[in-house]
Amino acid sequence: MIKAVIFDMDGVMIDTERQSNLGWQWAAGQKGIELPNWLMDEFKGASPSDSALKFKEYFGDRADFWELRELRSQFVYKLRETEGVPVKKGLFELLDYIKESGLKCAVATSTRRESAYKSLTTIGAYDYLDGIAYGDEIKHSKPAPDIFLKAAGLLDTKPEECVVIEDSINGIKAGHAANMKVVHVPDTIMIKDDIKELCYSIKEDLSQVIDVIKELNN
């Protein structure tokens, strides 16, 4: 029986991963380096410190992760001033269904509290939520299950009673490790078969997750 739905935020609720990728590419260009797509994919869902380690493994001392991250942030903030924070297809249809069905709802995001709160309030999703687990409040980031387990705890719900909605490889691994039903809604990352096997279901947009919940609770 499913009693709660836990969302990742970036790339699931809001269409920010494309903006982030553009920001990373711009920042890398400013420093005269090329940032491969696979490395940007490794950043998704991971904490800044874990991303910095992956960056260091690839670039060594040729570039500074934190400097690039600051440049990327400046680019993204300016981009959002013109584009706003785009909402993913089907988000509010799903949020309304969750609310009307009496299910609990949370967000588990690797983004720090201040930034995540701003995004969730800007798009009008904050008041739908019963709890939020923020990335800067977790010791072990995705792919560790900690952030999803914290979200379930905030909802007073068992892990096996939760559906997790994720777009990233790190997030899928984390949701699976937490013993939750993972629904993958693809964004900018193409996942391989071994990652697909960790998912309960794969859907094109958030509105289709309603059918997954109905199926699980039938």
Helical content class: 40-55%
| The top level CATH class name of the largest domain | Alpha Beta
Provide the CATH topology of the largest domain: Rossmann fold
User: How much strand content do the residues show?
Assistant: 5-15%
**What's the CATH H-level homologous superfamily of the largest domain?**
HAD superfamily/HAD-like
> Low-confidence runs (pLDDT<50, min 5 residues)?
none
Distance between the termini: 8 Å
Element pattern in H and E:
EHHHHHEHEHEHEHEH
In CATH, the architecture of the largest domain is: 3-Layer(aba) Sandwich
User: Mean of residue pLDDT?
Assistant: 94
Main β-sheet, spatial strand arrangement = 3-2-1-4-5-6
Number of domains: 2
- Output the number of helix runs: 10
Instruction: Output the structural class.
Output: alpha/beta
Topology:
Blueprint (H helix, E strand, L loop, with lengths): L3 E4 L9 H14 L6 H7 L4 H12 L5 H19 L7 H10 L3 E6 L3 H11 L7 E4 L11 H9 L7 E5 L2 H9 L3 E4 L8 H4 L4 E2 L6 H8 L2
Parallel strand pairs: 1-2, 1-4, 2-3, 4-5, 5-6
Helix pairs in contact: 1-4
What would your notes on this structure say?
Its cofactor is Mg(2+). One of its GO terms (molecular function) is metal ion binding. This protein is α/β, with parallel strands linked by helices and 218 residues long. It has two domains: 4-15 and 86-216, Rossmann fold; 17-83. The chain has ten helices and six strands; from the N terminus they run E-H-H-H-H-H-E-H-E-H-E-H-E-H-E-H. The chain has helices at 17-30, 37-43, 48-59, 65-83, 91-100, 113-123, 146-154, 169-177, 193-196, 209-216, and strands spanning 4-7, 104-109, 131-134, 162-166, 181-184, 201-202. Strands 3-2-1-4-5-6 form a six-stranded parallel beta sheet, sandwiched between helices. Strand 2 (104-109), helix 6 (113-123) and strand 3 form a beta-alpha-beta unit. The radius of gyration is 17 Å and the shape is globular. The mean pLDDT is 94.
